[in-house]
Amino acid sequence: MTQLGWAELQFGVTTVFHFFFVPVTIGLSFLIAILETIYVRTKNSIYRDLAKFWGHLFLINFAVGVVTGLLQEFQFGLDWATYSKFVGAVFGAPLAVEALAAFFLESTFIGAWAFGWDRLSARAHAVAIWLVVIGTSLSAFWILTANSWMQEPVGYRIEHGRAIMTSFGDILTNPQLWVEFPHTELAAILTGSFFMLAISAYQIWRKKNVQAFSRSFKVSTIIAAITSVLVIFVGDAQAAHLVKAQPMKLAAAEALWNTSSKHAPWSVVATINAHKHIDPFQVQIPEMLTLLAYKKFSGSVQGINQVQAQMVHRYGPGNYTPPVAVTFYAFRTMIFAGTAMMALAYYALYLLRKNRFTQTGWFLRILTWAIALPYLANSAGWIMTEVGRQPWVVYGLQLTAKGASPQASVPSLDIELSLFGFIVFYGAMAYAAVHLWKKVIGQGLDPDPGSEQGTDLTKDLLFGSTGAVK
Asked: What is the pTM assigned to this prediction?
């Protein structure tokens, strides 16, 4: 392991761990806001009790996410000082807006919401959680604005070896941003939905506050069913954008070593070996890759070898091929986990329609374990996005190897020791978070939460008073 390898490993480990918590913060705040809005409209205090219960889990998740995010930012000045100097004039603007506006908005109204249950009116309190939802989404937007610029640089010029912003408007209208942000936002809401769905299923399975958790089960099922489909559509648009923006990433994600014909198949599963081709074991869907790339059954997809030759011609000698096996399998892990969530969500919706979800114990157990699926999909998606961009840290402008801090300033041993410290600290944070989650989940709600006054707005809106789907 070189100094660069240790720096990459440290950033990868800390970012994946941090990203465990970010989507839950975004998605769960949205679900809590829905529950509290139903409470305001129906005056059924069961929804208020549910909002409080899920709020405890949300606050634990938010606290850990903030701490891990702050530690991650220190690495830009330590392990990646050359990169920070190169992109600072561009990269700093969206991150500054995120910190000064979005994060402060989010944090301020989280405080108002957490401590305002008995101090604010029901409507004002609901407005506070919706402002939290807006704040978390804005935070994601500005961070993804910076990341999208790394994926597809726009609105800049190179001056004295540094990238200088020339148009903030171009950065905000970056095509990469407007396929990356919707995909990430919807994936986060899907994550929050499955987080709520899995824990609600667990509570129903152990017959703990069944009446109350049946309602959060319904809300999360409906949102999961909707977002699981939408996330596929916007993800498809993001993949199609790679055809022009990053053809090497798309080729690596498909382990496509040579340019395909105009009718390229998509490999559902396959094995990758060291001889730069897919082994005979493969299951393919004819013409699907062409359809995914061009939305029609005609069009060739560039292969790794051809894109490599083009990049050598443009940027000079070098290996511009990312780790193919990692990119290939990460892409499929994300797709399979997302497909599994969609299938589970729609079967849960079917059981809701039949009013059998509380009696189907085996399915409730499956849903409980399915809490791992969104974490798996999110991590795999991030790995595919970032590893597939290699060897570039800023695509087409700066190689990752050129962005690391000088070894004389930050030797490998310092990175190794700090990585070990991060792992110990993050392990302790993870243990504390899981312990607190288990404590909150184990306590459940009060023995007789809420009252039966009001109506079940979720059921009435979706199924109608007769039980028929509207």
From this structure: 0.90
